[in-house]
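Quick sanity check, Sulphur oxidation protein SoxZ domain-containing protein:
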Amino acid sequence: MARALINLPRTARAGAVIEIKTLLSHPMETGYRPGPAGRLLPRDIVTEFVCRYDGEEVFRAEFFPATAANPYLTFTTVATRSGTLSFTWTGDNGFSQTQDVAIEVT
């Protein structure tokens, strides 16, 4: 399982724009590099990231083989209500990881 780091404010005022930063520890093998035996290493990348705010999609990104290992994203959204932000990364070889973070809006 990959390790995800998520940084966002735990509290915010209603209507405030909040910045969200995510980092996923993942090797991101492109499938184009030869391994020690001269054969191509199999592709193993994160292909998609989705952030949902209480079930509503607020951000989506697609990744491709040129994406660096340990993909880092920064994006913003508007704090509308207290709830949960759900972060999901999916990728090759059945990879899927979801992490939830609560936010309190006053």
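Posting the structure with no commentary besides this: Residues 3-30+44-105 form a domain with the Immunoglobulin-like fold (CATH 2.60.40.10).
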